[in-house]
Design brief:
Blueprint (H helix, E strand, L loop, with lengths): L5 E4 L3 E5 L2 E5 L1 H11 L4 E7 L13 E6 L5 E7 L2 E8 L18 E4 L18 E4 L6 E3 L5 E3 L5 H4 L5 E5 L6 H10 L2 E5 L5 E5 L2 E5 L12 H15 L4 H16 L4 H14 L1
Parallel strand pairs: 1-4, 1-8, 2-6, 4-5, 8-9, 9-12, 12-13
Antiparallel strand pairs: 2-3, 6-7, 10-11, 13-14, 14-15
Helix pairs in contact: 1-4, 1-6, 4-5, 5-6
Amino acid sequence: MTHIDYLAIGHVSKDLTPDGPVLGGTVSFSGRLAQALGCHTAVLTSSGADFAWQDQLPGIDLHVVPAAQTTTFENVYTAHGRIQTLHAQAAPLLPGHVPSAWQRASIVHLAPIASEIDPAMIQLFSNSLVGLTPQGWMRSWDENGRVRPTDWSAARTVLPLATAVIVSHEDLRDEAQFDLFREWSRLLVVTKGYNGCTIYFDDEIRHLPTRRAAEVNATGAGDIFATAFFIRLHQTRGNPWEAGRFANELATRSVELPDIPAKLAGIQQFIQES
């Protein structure tokens, strides 16, 4: 079996929009960007027969755990912020679902969106750069599917095992949670939208600003940032400052373009011209 450069693990999602369902989930954005950056890419996910999405990830190795339904989100934006509802959830992703050859991937991106990944999964990848975007472990939902932030009980066990952890400042509940994430993470990156990112590594803190973009479509920008960061961190043998600079640039370019094909094409052109 061919060596995997970038393995993304997490649910794809069926995102309900006024124009119909569209493919979402961190792994769908991350997988396509990793592929565009030249990585042999694989995705471990779960979905049901209610949503056909596989043809949107051509050339990516897929391992799909069958489920009765696909994880389904609906986002409603109001003057008071986003209201997110989880309508359905696919099957849990367990350590036994990872093909043995994939356990030697160069980069592993654990990308839960609805607490679907068994935290023990991280122990499989002792020889990989393990990147973590834990947003989906930091969510809970009520009987109506209304999503709210929550404490993540496994954080103290999981965070120290990751090479790098990336969270949005919007996902952190309060200063106390941030302090714990910083204490438990070897390398922590907090993204701040058009204000760039702040990197905490060893005893050093650096804020890396980014240029102000003419925003057209910000969908997937956080996932593009994370993927670019993990790939550049691997390429530079662990330089977080260069990884942050590179990730800022790619995420900024992505919001200036209208859709995923255009974003990927624009990023590829930028890489070629750099």
